[in-house]
UniProtKB/TrEMBL annotation:
InterPro entries per the UniProt record, alphabetical: P-loop_NTPase, T6A_TsaE
Location of the protein in the cell: Cytoplasm
Lineage of origin: Bacteria, Pseudomonadati, Pseudomonadota, Hydrogenophilia, Hydrogenophilales
Name this protein carries in UniProt: tRNA threonylcarbamoyladenosine biosynthesis protein TsaE
NCBIfam families: T6A_YjeE
Length: 161
């Protein structure tokens, strides 16, 4: 017997920030303690905007600023500890350990990571990778890639009609 193939990637076109917010709101119910989400894309792609939309969907009403200088911001919201990281300023991947960041990835929080590639192989693996690419017309092409069973389950729910 063959089971239906699980969805491991979805590509979407998001015409504006409202579309980004709507997608974030649909993804948010998947998030649970231990989830790691990587956000990949050039400066200005909309990574921080996506994180902000997830936090709004969880009920956070305060500001959401880029954690570029602090490396990590904690948002306790909806019973979750949501950690927002930005590794953009890493000169070398070893800064991940030098900054003592691995202890945040202990499975108790939800970790959203901008610029995970700056930590290279030291970055804890993602359940879900969100790749955002700006298009010349200002829209965004967004690819959601699932790397764990729970993320594939999430994408299956998202893809269901
Ligand atoms: N569809 C879209 N999704 C997300 N952001 C968008 C979109 N269209 C335009 N933007 C704008 O692009 C910018 C993205 O900035 P930001 O989220 O800080 O990028 P990053 O964190 O990837 O560097 C914001 O000014 C946002 O308003
Ligand atoms: Mg950012």
């Amino acid at each position: 017997m063959s089971l239906p193939r699980e969805t491991s990637a979805i590509t979407l076109s998001l015409s504006d920030e409202n579309a980004t917010a709507a997608l974030a709101a649909r993804l948010t119910p998947c998030l649970a303690p231990g989830w790691v989400v990587h956000l990949v894309g050039p400066l200005g792609a909309g990574k921080t905007t996506f994180v902000r939309a997830i936090l709004r969907a969880l009920g956070h009403t305060g500001p959401v600023k880029s954690p570029t200088y602090g490396l990590v911001e904690l948002y306790p919201v909806s019973g979750l500890n949501l950690y927002h990281f930005d590794f953009y300023r890493f000169a070398t991947p070893e800064e991940f350990y030098a900054a003592g960041l691995e202890e945040y990835f202990d499975g108790t929080g939800v970790c959203l990571v901008e610029w995970p590639e700056k930590a290279a192989a030291l970055a804890p693996g993602a359940d879900l990778t969100i790749t955002i690419e700006p298009r010349p017309d200002g829209s965004r092409e967004v690819r959601l890639t699932a790397s764990t069973p729970r993320a594939r389950q999430c994408l299956n729910r998202l893809a269901a009609p």
